Amino acid sequence: xxxxxxxxxxxxxxxxxxxxxxxxxxxxxxxxxxxxxxxxxxxxxxxxxxxxxxxxxxxxxxxxxxxxxxxxxxxxxxxxxxxxxxxxxxxxxxxxxxxxxxxxxxxxxxxxxxxxxxxxxxxxxxxxxxxxxxxxxxxxxxxxxxxxxxxxxxxxxxxxxxxxxxxxxxxxxxxxxxxxxxxxxxxxxxxxxxxxxxxxxxxxxxxxxxxxxxxxxxxxxxxxxxxxxxxxxxxxxxxxxxxxxxxxxxxxxxxxxxxxxxxxxxxxxxxxxxxxxxxxxxx
Length: 283
Description:
Blueprint: H1 2-20, H2 31-48, H3 51-66, H4 72-92, H5 98-102, H6 114-117, H7 120-131, H8 140-189, H9 195-250, H10 254-264, H11 273-280
């Protein structure tokens, strides 16, 4: 939602400034320029990106407009889930976690935290991490290294998506120039026509350059930046899961585990002292 508001502000500011200067909105409406610039940009994205990256780009853009799934409510649910699982493991042993991590959708513990349960990436990462300590034989140091390696793979793939979007954004001004040059070619074909017609065609050509720059710096590049920040939010949450898993493997008690994990979270997602007390079931 925030991304949509931002895009509206960008385009509204440009259009209002244009009309304040005496321009007419109709002078900016040239579908042929959009087809040229947009089609070329999509084609370039397809050329540079393998299928997985293209799919991730579409998913990432959809998620940008939905908003980050790693907000404070999700982080509080994550802490609550980890607290319950840690208490269960301390009371009944590590093997008690097996049924929950093997089938989280039918787990009475996971079902209490729908934001975590419905987040496929987070749910799978939690289950994969905890499944490695179910038998109680995992070495904490080796486990931490393995889980950080898993996160590094996810971060690398995420950076590929952001990189593809940024390269596409960088190409848009160039495609705008291509559209402008084509517009000038069209103008030259009508050079012996009325002055009004020539002026209209030159204006249409300049709109190509305008759209290329605006779509690059006012839309696609900010989207890529937003996607990168969302990736960092996800990474922080996954690192929190790693810490919880390692602490659980070391035998830390639930209170210490949740307190340490909460400190890893960002300031906008970290629970307050009162929320932490309620989470731990203390007065």
